[in-house]
Amino acid sequence: MFRAGRDSRAQIARLYRPAPNGGHFRPIFRLQSDGGAGNITRGTADPLTGTVPIPGRGVVVGAGEVVAEENQAMLNETEAAAGAMEEPSTEGTATAIQFANDEHPAAEGELTGRKSFVDDFAGYRALRRRIEDVERTGQSVPFFQPRDGVSHSVIRRQDKSLINYSGYNYLGLSGHPAVSAAAKNAIDKYGTSVSASRIVSGQIELHSELEKRLANFLGTEDALVFISGYLTNVSVISQLLARPDAVIYDSGAHNSIITGARLSGAKTFTYENGDWTALDKIMKKERASFRRGLLVCEGIYSMDGQILDLPRAVESKNRHDLLLMVDEAHSLGNVGLTGRGVCEAYSLPASVIDVHMGTLSKTLASSGGYIAGDRGLMEYMRFLCPGLIFSVGLSPPDTAAAIAALDILEREPHRPKRLRERSRYFRQLAREYGLEMGGDEESPVSSLIVGDDKKTFHLSKRLFDQGIDVQPIVRPAVSADTARLRFFITANHTEEQLKATIPLVAKELDYVRRHDA
Ligand SMILES: Cc1ncc(COP(=O)(O)O)c(C=O)c1O
Q1: pLDDT number for residue 136
Q2: pLDDT per residue as tens digits for the range 237-260
Q3: For this structure, is 362 an active site residue?
Q4: Partners of 358 in the beta sheet?
Q5: 186-198, pLDDT tens digit by residue?
Q6: Greatest Cα pair distance in the chain
Q7: What are phi and psi of 13, to 5 degrees?
Q8: Ligand 1, atom 3: closest residue by C-alpha
Q9: Structural domain boundaries, residue 6
Q10: What is the position in ligand 1's atom list of the atom closest to the CA of 168?
Q11: Looking at residue 422, which CATH number applies to its domain?
């Protein structure tokens, strides 16, 4: 049974019970909600109606999954359609349950005209509505579009070459001959997979080499690599903290941080990105209510592009007796004179951060994630972090590619320098054309807020037609009113490419604002 978290407020557990005729298992669903008053209420799905009665609060119907707060509207809609709510729930954000009959799925599908068992899931229905909304305007959904070749400053899509702002190959190391050669050599030596989790028999020499190199680069005692950056946050945060603890993050936090925090069972506290006074206020009030607190920040925020004010984060950590984790997915290799990240940028020792985290998928031209810090933390995670011990080891080509990329980064510090110059130049040009680009001056993540999904899709499409590939970012990655184009600047963009881009963006933004309702 899931327990209702502080901000998830209601959750569903799917349990399995043997079907009466034996052989198959049929799902039943339970809902547990804090009901807004701290009272835990529970309900078990009625197998015939698929509804969950909540004593004193009516009935919840819908699709069985945990849904975030923004989906309250969907829940209300589902409930209204079913006419089943005795009183409106202001707190329950989860939707439950269309009972799926596992014994006769095809027969039920035929009866209801459903094509897929998710057709009745509220989340899926909302997605379909959004896709249909876009298609009604004559556009196609601009996601999962195939592309060719390496994601350099130019990219090939639909047989067109476009100036590329859609990839985070920040230093141009994906596709670098030395990086590709290292990956190929590793395949020749070890194959394409280590074919086991590292704790069992998946450990290869390259793993320790990469970890030593990362620790050395960052100035920490040790490091540990995982097969995915996303998984690193989820698994490490949820292993480190537990119920009497708290995870504190801001409004710009990446989904992997939020998911890790929720999974941990710890309390969560959030504050507006960059509002350190708000953080202080919350901590003054709440610090006594939890045991350990992990403050999680990002070196460069992946949506808005701000660079972390590390001294302020350290001040908060010290003032409120917290642990500090910094996700350097976008700042490793970019921030600091030689790309060593936020500690280098502020001339602070690596030890001010308790958990260094980063990804191998951006500047390091590979795939995977890492944490770095003291030996005890690494030993704890190496033996007990589920995302490491229950998952295959990082693949040989990925590991070798990251080592080779790190070699180049260490040898060629002009790359991060050039990236910072390009980022500054891009913003300077934008200002000249009256465009408000979000993010810090030297940040390679640059967001242009459009404020509406459809206009953002349209603007992206019009730019695509004129040779520029920049992706729209919409809900749930950002809030609906901050739908945006996000430009990733790379060290390989030329000044000419940037100069060609900005006037077009200004012209097309103006067009979309004037013509789209
Ligand atoms: C801040 C942040 N953390 C973690 C991740 C997950 O990393 P990966 O895509 O390498 O799994 C991302 C993804 O872009 C990110 O932006």
Answers
A1: 87
A2: 999 999 999 999 999 999 999 999
A3: yes
A4: 370
A5: 999 999 999 999 9
A6: 73
A7: -115, 135
A8: 329
A9: 1-106+122-136
A10: 14
A11: 3.90.1150.10
